[in-house]
What does this fold into?
Amino acid sequence: MDFAKLNRRAFLQAAATAAAAAGVTVGCSRKSTPWRFFRIDEARTLAAMVDQIIPPDQDPGASWAGVVNYIDRQLCGPYKKLQSTYRIGLSGVDQTSRALHGKLFSDLDSTQQAALLHQLEDGKAPGTIWKPILSSEFFSMVVDHTMQGFYGDPRHGGNREGVSWKMLDLPYPPIRGRLRSDEAKRNVG
Amino acid sequence: MSLKHVNAVIVGSGAGGGVVAKDLSEAGLSVVLLERGKWFTPFDDRKDDLRNQRTCVLGNSFGPDDRSPRVYVDGSGKEFTVDPRHWAYSNNAACVGGGTLSYGAMAWRFMEDDFRLRTKYGSVPGSTLDDWPVTYQDLEPYYEKAEWEIGVSGNDSNNIFRAPRKRPLPMPPLPANRDFQILEPAAKRLGLHPFHIPMLRNSVPYNGRGACMRCRWCVGYACEVSAKCGTQNTVIPRAIATGNCELRTECIAKVVLTDDRGKIRGVAYYDANGHYQEQTSDLVVVSCSAVESPRLLLNSKSRMFPNGLGNRYDWVGRNLQGHAYTGAAGLFDQETYDDLGPGASIAICDFNHNNPGFVAGGLLANEFLRSPYQVVTGVSGDGIPRWGKAHKDFMRKFFKRNVTVMGPMQEMPVFDSRVQVDPKVKDAWGIPVARISGRHHENDLLGTTFITEKAVLWLKEAGAIQTIPFHWTFLGIPSGGQHQAGTCRMGNDPQTSVVDKFCRVHDIDNLYVIDGSVHPNNGGFNPVLTIMAVAYHASANIVKTWKGTHGGV
It folds into this structure.
């Protein structure tokens, strides 16, 4: 599969349809969205963001790996306290995008998206929202959560099919010693 | 119905409390061991790289949970209520075995000079630095006891700086992993003295348990084959096997109870069902580690002890220390990765003492974990791409081509780095929580700068094409962490310490504090073997001086 060409929006729509068909309305979900926490427009903005942070190339990118799903799930669990930060921050990304280009962030081309994220990172992004929440802090948080969702254990809803471990040439599960024939075990003692 | 009176209540079943439980119950004392967490088994290890005791972004697998918050005061005086996932919480663990269930298990003896820093270096302005009231020679037999009863593998014979030992370690080291093979010749070329780290881990079958299976999921995780030696699979089962020790899990100590004459009469706690209980006893041992032990003493206020127990001179909770961790990561052309656990394998003690321009120092060793998220967060800093295609290319190129060396730099104790009880915030049981505040000593910055340079030199000599030094930036904020220590200092003078050299609280005959809290300073080493040795030393004295009635629970 050529992941670079995989259409992110098509994937999100497919995922949304699948989730809706399965009747998934877990925890803090709203009726108008297939996600647990995010609204559809928020998930779209976040998917575009995480695909800049870990873009698809010869290996899949962050949104294919399920990073949006990972973050969505944690926001209804351990990251519950960060719900409003995400709600405000993601609307801030679109606010900045509209101010600079008159479009939503997910509708910008890749170069524009990357440039905008650099502005967020440097704390230079325009937008009234970046007063209560520093854009650099919001961006750092999304980067960290993206790394967790992409490289962390698939049980938490990201790293689909162990994609990052395959990229790094790690076996799944990456635990030496579980097999009786293991070389290391014979060396012991 | 009131609970049957016992000889001793021990609060906390970690490195200190577990050892004391075994020694007292084997001597025939009836013991109740209270533990706030659960008793996990090897089957509870889920090898979850986002939820463990080292990387706890999604939670701590072995506790505590959000029912036990703490208050943290940063350098500017701002207060935060933090949950156990927050780095400023200074979490260790809440389970049977405490930190020893999921630690990396380095088994260091402190050096002789670590017990007499004040004599060696003189007084340090801004620090309460002092000598220990015990010497290395006093503790040597108890270090040995810990090594043989709990189980240590390794080979430190090439460590010319080590304190003299009478008996070798009971188990040989595990065969060298790749980090060791890369770092050892480089250290030797630099004139350093590398050696196999002593570890509380079975390298061969020992004490009825099997050998390490060498997965690299060690620090932060429980061992799925129980080859890592903690108190939960060594001394605590032995204590229970005597028939004299009852372990009660999920019990939250509220206060230590006193009578009208100022004697300790037991412990009040909430049991697993949340019911209030009073367990009376002849003596009480507090072994809750350096944040929770002072919290319990300070919460135990009474008419006789209006400032809390042992706190007549306002020393309980003072001198909170951990370790100023520092080091560097190196990137290599050749592949360095291997998945051979436990990971950390090689260390040097060349920079623990006698360094130019600052007091004490610390060891350097290679890093345990190499899981992908760990590498993303650990190998980061100047010149390392954080995100974008450059980040992805970096991971593809260097995930298997990096080595990290780091170590615990000894901190200078600071009187205002402290644990108090918060006047407002309470935990889920209604007990006032610990409040952590203060700052580090300037010596910690001088020392980490020096040690970081040494780490960089070692990596460069080993062939690193790029090095990423850690910038230690904790000067203005409180200490603590998993290596927390110092808050109930051991000393001869009741006006400048909390317990005597046998860990007995100065003005109370039947109250002891036995854990890392009593360390006057914390060495340039992971402190667990010293906590165990001090516990053996203290409990031997309790047994020797015991005049009460013996009898089963």
About this structure: The domain at 6-39+111-545 of chain B is CATH 3.50.50.60 (FAD/NAD(P)-binding domain). Chain B has a mean pLDDT of 96. Chain B has ten helices and 18 strands.
